């Protein structure tokens, strides 16, 4: 025995979560399983620098939706770090804060393959890769080669870990659309998320079950 405390392996799954759905949760679950993580933190963006937020009910609602999505699953936690921080939600800042708070932990930034391929366009991508290992969910539509070539130019990109997950082709865009059309979203989002959307009349519709 070395006598050293083994460091905790923490996954961070960032997103707009507008709203969270089973694709997010299965992605987090498979990262937890395949990478041997101790816990996975859902990190809703306050103000995403990369994408305009369509039909945004507001960061507080998206945060609460994440809490509902993670309810009862001890593998998941939800952080309000980005929601509380003013200005654009740069991942590099979030990782720096988490490092300061959890100096003995090893951080893994969990992203879908589609997002991984876009990493070079992020604010300080090499700073991101210095602070966390990129953990990429393989997704249909984004071949491994396109991710490898996008990351090849970045220092730290070679440490990227890939994991597989059952293909779940659901998106928040589709959920919002279904709510507007008054179509059921049951089984696509956790029940607690569907009831919260319904209670607060988010996304301009009802959600029949
Ligand atoms: P929108 O439809 O509003 O663009 P989204 O469904 O893509 O949203 P985000 O909150 O933007 O959801 O995604 C957060 C993270 O989850 C990203 O890394 C993304 O690649 C990943 N992700 C989203 N949907 C899935 C899915 N169905 N399977 C695997 N990963 C997913």
Give me the secondary-structure topology:
Blueprint: E1 9-15, H1 22-34, E2 39-44, H2 59-70, E3 76-78, H3 81-84, H4 91-101, E4 106-112, H5 113-116, H6 125-131, E5 133-137, H7 144-152, E6 161-163, H8 172-180, H9 191-199
Parallel strand pairs: 1-2, 1-4, 2-3, 4-5, 5-6
Helix pairs in contact: 2-9, 4-6
* N- and C-termini, Cα separation: 55 Å
Arrangement of strands in the largest sheet: 3-2-1-4-5-6
Using the 3D structure, state the CATH architecture.
3-Layer(aba) Sandwich
Number of domains: 1
Return the average pLDDT rounded to an integer: 93
Bound molecules: adenosine-5'-triphosphate
Return the CATH class. Answer: Alpha Beta
Shape: globular
Strand content: 5-15%
**Number of alpha- plus pi-helical segments:** 9
- Which consecutive residue ranges, at least 5 long each, have pLDDT under 50? none
What series of H and E elements makes up the topology?
EHEHEHHEHHEHEHH
CATH topology: Rossmann fold
The largest pleated sheet is described as: 6 strands, parallel
- Estimate percent helicity: 25-40%
Radius of gyration: 17 Å
Number of strands: 6
Give an overview in words.
- With 209 residues, the protein is an alpha/beta fold.
- It has a single domain, classed as 3-Layer(aba) Sandwich (Rossmann fold), CATH 3.40.50.620.
- It has nine helices and six strands.
- The longest helix is centred in the N-terminal third of the chain and has 13 residues, at 22-34.
- The radius of gyration is 17 Å and the shape is globular.
- The model has no long low-confidence stretch (mean pLDDT 93).
- Adenosine-5'-triphosphate (ATP) binds next to helix 1, strand 4, helix 5 and helix 8.
């Amino acid at each position: 025995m070395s006598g050293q405390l083994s460091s905790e392996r923490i996954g961070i799954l960032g997103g707009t979560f507008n709203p969270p759905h089973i694709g997010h949760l299965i992605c987090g679950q498979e990262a937890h399983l395949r990478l041997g993580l101790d816990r996975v933190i859902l990190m809703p963006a306050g103000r995403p620098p990369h994408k305009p937020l369509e039909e945004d009910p507001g960061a507080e609602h998206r945060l609460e939706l994440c809490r509902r999505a993670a309810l009862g699953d001890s593998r998941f936690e939800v952080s309000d770090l980005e929601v509380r921080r003013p200005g654009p939600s740069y991942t590099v800042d979030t990782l720096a804060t988490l490092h300061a708070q959890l100096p003995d932990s090893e951080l893994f930034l969990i992203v879908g393959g589609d997002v991984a391929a876009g990493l070079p366009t992020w604010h300080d991508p090499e700073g991101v890769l210095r602070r966390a290992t990129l953990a990429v969910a393989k997704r249909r539509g984004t071949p491994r080669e396109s991710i490898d070539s996008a990351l090849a130019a970045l220092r730290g990109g070679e440490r990227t870990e890939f994991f597989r997950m059952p293909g779940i082709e659901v998106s928040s865009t589709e959920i919002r659309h279904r709510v507007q059309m008054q179509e059921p979203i049951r089984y696509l989002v956790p029940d607690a998320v569907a009831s919260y959307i319904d209670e607060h009349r988010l996304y301009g519709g009802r959600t029949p079950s």
